[in-house]
Every structure is written in structure tokens, then in C-alpha cells.
Write a structure and sequence with these properties.
- With 282 residues, this protein is of the alpha/beta class.
- It has one domain: Rossmann fold (3-Layer(aba) Sandwich), CATH 3.40.50.
- Helix content is 31%, strand content 22%.
- The protein has eight helices and ten strands.
- The protein has helices spanning 11-16, 84-95, 118-124, 131-147, 163-174, 199-202, 223-234, 262-278; strands spanning 7-8, 35-36, 42-50, 56-64, 70-76, 99-103, 151-161, 180-184, 210-215, 241-245.
- The strands form two sheets. It has an eight-stranded mixed beta sheet, sandwiched between helices. A two-stranded antiparallel ribbon has the order 1-2.
- β9, α7 (223-234) and β10 (241-245) form a beta-alpha-beta unit.
- The relative contact order is 0.13.
Length: 282
């Protein structure tokens, strides 16, 4: 594959090139056909920025080496953290001319890349991450992008996957200055922490237009919850919509896992680009 989605490499090549080491232990082994986007023409790598609590937050960022005034996209991690797939998503956006940045949003609570058990990640790390901390870290990530002289934060968007899909809806409600959002298969009516707000709660007052991408065969996100979210969105004026891919399951954009659905993932990414363009991000 030679388009913006990068190139596919075999499982053997992944191991030989040690690329698999960039993925969280909980998602090993890495699927054959994983997409790896190169850094040709890009500046890409880890940086740190200061959060309101004084903590230096690690983040991966990628952007075209040449040029300024780039639109910004905040890329919000899956539950497995900012591993190689999330970094690759940043590079895909950078190839399109974006300044893409993915903060490590629960590094304070633990390093999930070294945890093999999904349930342990939920119990020991994710359940302890306050939404307020996430919101202010994302604010700080945008502020950092502005200081680089490369990014135009007046044209900012947000996108996130799984855990980050839920956060995408919440951050769009938190930051009305965003131009648009794109949420991928994030919980709508429930979260990891009981008693906190969820997308369905903020939908009626949402002003930022968000497009949602969900799977019709997602065992963790019911079609009833999608119907409930659509009804809540209809009470507001954001113009947000939810696309459901009938044959897709959870994580259908995760090309490093068996859940990947190439056809639907490509279609959703094209729709995302059009959504951002129509709403003035690019």
C-alpha cells in the first residue's frame, strides 16, 4: 500500500525490524499486514509539554517538516496507550498536512505498554484516570502545539479510538473552540468510572460537530446505546452524526489486530477527512 495509510509489512518483517516492540504487550502478537507509515518529509517523535499541575506530559507528535500554519489534530489513544498504532495514525495525519499530537493521557497512573492483561489495565490504571485531568492535558497539548510556530490552533480537531472515542465526545463538549471531532467506537452511555459524565450526557448541549464511527457487530457497544446517543444529539444543534458499519466489530480501524476491517476503516477515514474539510479544519 502506497497511499496515505502507509505500507503493509509482513509479520516476519515486523519482527526482523523490531517494529513489534513499539506495541503494547497486551496486544501481542501483532497481526500480519499491520500498516506502518514512514516519516519521509515529516518531523516525528516524542516531546514533553507542561500540564497545569506542573507535570511534564509525554506526547508523540508528527508534522510536515516544511511549512507553518498547519491544522491541528489531537489524536487520543486507545486503552492500550500511545503505542505504535496511535503513533502511526499521527503520521498518517501528518502526511495530509496536519500537526498531529497524541499525549500520554494516563502515564501518571502507570505504563500500560508493559501490562499484558487487559483487565489489569482497566483495574489498575484506566479506572484511576480522572476525566478532568484528561481534559486539561488535552488543553495543554493544544497550547504546546501553538508554541511550536508550526500549528494553527484556530483550526483544531480531535479524534480518538476506543477509550479515546469516548474522550473525543467529552473533549468536544469541553472545548467549544474546536472545529470538529471524530470518535471511533467509544462508549456512549457508560465509561470506565461509575458516576462520571458520558457522551450521552453532553450530547444535547454539544456545539462542536462530531462524526462517530461504530461497528454493527461491536459486542461492547450496543445498537441501543447508539440509538440513545442519536436521540440525545437530536436535542442539540451540533449537527453531529454517527455512522454504523453493519459488519464491523469493535476496533475495526486497528490494523495491527484481527478486528481490522480494511474496507470499513478506509471508508471511515475518507469520511473523516471530508468532515474535517467541510467544517473548516483544512
Amino acid at each position: 500500500m502506497t497511499d496515505v495509510l502507509g505500507s503493509k509489512v509482513s509479520r516476519r518483517a515486523l519482527v526482523r525490524g523490531s517494529v513489534a516492540a513499539g506495541f503494547a504487550l497486551a496486544v501481542q502478537p501483532i497481526a500480519e499486514g499491520t500498516i506502518i507509515t514512514d516519516t519521509k518529509g515529516l518531523t516525528a517523535g516524542m516531546v514533553k509539554f507542561k500540564a497545569p499541575d506542573g507535570v511534564q506530559v509525554p506526547a508523540y507528535r508528527a508534522f510536515p517538516t516544511k511549512g507553518t500554519g498547519m491544522p491541528v489534530v489531537l489524536v487520543i489513544q486507545e486503552i492500550f496507550g500511545v503505542h505504535e498504532h496511535i503513533k502511526d495514525v499521527c503520521r498518517r495525519f501528518a502526511k495530509l498536512g496536519y500537526y498531529a499530537i497524541a499525549p500520554e493521557l494516563y502515564f501518571r497512573q502507570g505504563d500500560v505498554s508493559q501490562i499484558k492483561d487487559f483487565q489489569v489495565i482497566i483495574r489498575d490504571v484506566v479506572s484511576k484516570v480522572p476525566d478532568r485531568q484528561v481534559m486539561t492535558d488535552l488543553d495543554a497539548a493544544l497550547a504546546y502545539a501553538k508554541t511550536t510556530g508550526k500549528a494553527d490552533v484556530t483550526r483544531a480537531a480531535v479524534t480518538g479510538f476506543c477509550w479515546g472515542g469516548r474522550i473525543t465526545w467529552l473533549y468536544a463538549a469541553h472545548n467549544p473552540s474546536l472545529k470538529a471531532g471524530a470518535a471511533w467506537y467509544g462508549n456512549l452511555v457508560k465509561g470506565s468510572v461509575p458516576g462520571v459524565k458520558n457522551p450521552v450526557d453532553v450530547a444535547p448541549t454539544l456545539t462542536v460537530p462530531v462524526v462517530g464511527f461504530y461497528g454493527g457487530k461491536d459486542a461492547g457497544i450496543s445498537q441501543e446505546s447508539i440509538t440513545e446517543m442519536r436521540a440525545a444529539l437530536a436535542k442539540g444543534k451540533s449537527g453531529s452524526v454517527i455512522n454504523v458499519y453493519a459488519d464491523a466489530g469493535h476496533g475495526f480501524n486497528a490494523d495491527y489486530r484481527p478486528s481490522y476491517d480494511e474496507k470499513d476503516a478506509k471508508d471511515a477515514f475518507v469520511k473523516l477527512q471530508a468532515w474535517f474539510k467541510q467544517r473548516g479544519v483544512v
